[in-house]
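Cast an eye over my tokenised protein here and flag anything odd:

===
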Amino acid sequence: MNIAMQRRAEIALSSLDKKEQEELNRVLKKLEAFSLEEFIDSPLKKEFTSKFFNERIYVVEGNSNFKIIVSLNKGEKNCTIEDIFSCQRLESFPVLKQAA
């Protein structure tokens, strides 16, 4: 699957310590290896909705401290890493709501 990374996600990733960067980079490599169908069926992610995104939004477990926010454009078979959040920050983020 083709993956693009928003600048804010790049900044978040580069601001982490080396160990956390390596952990998250391993997850990002797994995402790249997935086909679109494998990603949709993967237990690594949870689907969310947001009024700010037209695409499908997923939260992927990065490690025990961080989550990766992914938007998926199914028509183009690619995804965008929108941001990387600390677990605590994500829990208080009001614009994402877990899909039913």
